[in-house]
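Researcher: I need the complex structure. Ligand is adenosine monophosphate. Inputs:
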Amino acid sequence: MKNLILIAAPAAGKGTLSEMLMDKFNYTHISTGDILREVSHEDTELGRKIADILKTGSLVTDEIVFELLEKRLKEPDTLNGYILDGFPRTLKQAEMYDDLLKKINRDLGIVVIINTPYETLKKRIVGRVLCKDCGSIYNTLTGVNTPKVENVCDKCGGTLYKRTDDNEESFAKRYNEYMEHTNPLIDYYKNKGNLFYINGENKEQMLEEIEALLHD
Ligand code: AMP
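Model: Output:
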């Protein structure tokens, strides 16, 4: 499968789309946010440093994120196609990633921008809950993907929880970070010629649009 980079504002649909692509095409999902959240629970200096940054909604430094990503890409499950969800988030990260691809002789694949209106993003963030065990995503506000039983995962029965940064204040900060640091990546990849847009408002439509890109 083609490697995929998903670029989108917080809660635009990266996680939901990744879940569908994993189910349908057996993609490996690499979310730098998930990796950072895991490290943030470790009782180490690095873990505490990351936890403090995540709470505020600011970006973790390029060097820390890149080191964690490079380590993840050495694992064999990345050989048959992976989705990068939440990386790169800065121009520096995109350049570091290009150098790494050359070094390890892998393809960039395609870069997909998910377009979702601001008000939809905000509602999704404030109502978002996730499964502690399998990571499935639900929403208690939008009327889409409401868990059948409150606080219980429909798929595996795991307990649902809320991310510490899924609140209105942190959303505003994360959205600004996105506009300032991540949006410039659009031009970077447009110039390379492998950039595509999909609409993030409807889950089924998102899957259809991306399937068309994958089959091209
Ligand atoms: P996400 O799960 O993608 O919404 O990311 C959650 C948080 O993790 C972000 O608000 C950042 O603090 C941090 N993060 C995730 N990916 C990156 C990245 N590529 N560069 C810097 N910080 C990141």
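Model: Summary of the prediction. The longest helix spans residues 168-182.
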